[in-house]
Amino acid sequence: MKKEYDFSKGERGKFFRPGVKLNLPVYLEPDLRDYFPNAESVNKALRCLLPLLSSQKSGQSLKKN
Fold it and tell me: In 3-state terms, what secondary structure has residue 9?
């Protein structure tokens, strides 16, 4: 970080909101956008994959949000 930045009047936690969920964007490659034009189609496809992932014998657990 550059030395000329002045944070002396900064306010810690000014934009922090406890309990707020972030929805981060996911960017698809151009060739995938033809098959998944919107969030609903992506979510539907990913939900179809969940049973396959949960049946893995690797012992890894899936993170649930």
Answer: coil
**What distance lies between CA 16 and its chain's CA centroid?**
18
- Residue 50 in 3-state DSSP? helix
d(CA 9, CA 65): 36
Interatomic CA distance for residues 56 and 33, integer angstroms: 28
**pLDDT tens column, 31-53:** 999 999 999 999 999 999 999 98
CA distances from 9 to 12, 14, 20, 24, 41 (A): 10, 12, 26, 29, 46
Q: Which of 51, 55, 29 is nearest to 42 (CA)?
A: 29
